[in-house]
Amino acid sequence: MNNIIGRDIEKAAALLKEGRVVAIPTETVYGLAADALNEKAVKRIFEVKDRPAVNPLIVHLANADLIPNYASDIPDVAGRLIDAFCPGPLTIVLSKKAVVPGMVTANRDTVALRIPAHPVTRQLLKMTGLPLAAPSANPSGYISPTSAEHVFRNMGHKIDYILDGGVCNAGIESTIVGFENDLPVIYRQGVITADDIRLVAGEVLQYAGDKMLAPGMSATHYSPRTPMILADNIDDEIEHHRKRYLGVITYNEYVASVPQSQQILLSENDELGEAAKKLYAAMHMMDTRGYEVIIARRFPDTGIGLALNDRLQRAAIKL
Length: 319
Ligand code: TXA
Ligand code: MG
Hints:
Largest sheet: 12 strands, mixed
Bound molecules: threonylcarbamoyladenylate, magnesium ion
Order of helices and strands: EHEEHEHEHEHEHEHEEEHEEHEEHEH
Distance between the termini: 40 Å
Number of strands: 16
Number of helices: 11
Helix content: 25-40%
Strand content: 15-25%
Shape: globular
């Protein structure tokens, strides 16, 4: 039953070269990959995910030297960010070259590029010699997968192979940065924070334009099927829902009013990086337990906590 999950990089490479779609591990989340230069293969990604054609894909490359093959007019500051953070959980949006099919970029004149750090996928990229288009390997709108099992449970019936690289280390999707007048603009927050980027670039802006135009930034996203509430005040929220069967996702301490068996504690030692690594797995787990409501506690609004709150905000029902 589970034989579509495996660790065979050569098999994954062969399937990708044939134009098939394969789930791959990255340090952020699992991706649903295909040859970015093969439009038929790319089309299949959109079908498997049920993803709107207007939502462009990230192209993954084996190393930063390949970037000029796919992008032009690369600002100096982009070069500095690439030197500082690639390979790693950073995606940069640059002017695209004609070789990148319009289907990948939803006909935009820009392309999103990323050099993933996961050793398995780095080896896969080298072995195929291909640029790999890969969105997160979840059905459109659902929680991103941070393990091969998550991919299997939610789209295992639709794909040929899931390349298992273990649990993703960073745990949330890459930070996406574009450039306006040669200044970096954060389109999507991630474990590389605005402060990290500012240290390298001097200045950084937060995208404040049309949320639909912003990269993948529709207001609702990443949601479990069980309604999830983002709690500013966890005790009030629990009291309000006390008659319902509740699951609680909490950051660094259990809440007293709910049995611990109904809670997932993300980081006993108060480490936001650890919480990032575990957050989506907690949401996946909570979604299998039959709760009426999931209550997630807001993270501190500092460092990676900002990206985590951004994801919870999108995942939560809008009250
Ligand atoms: O960590 C990640 O980035 C993961 C792993 C698999 O690499 N990928 C990922 O892909 O999160 P996806 O498709 O779930 O999110 C990519 C986002 C989308 O929201 C899309 O709108 C945005 O990147 N994007 C892609 N190309 C873009 C472009 N040319 N301009 C602006 N946004 C773009
Ligand atoms: Mg996604």
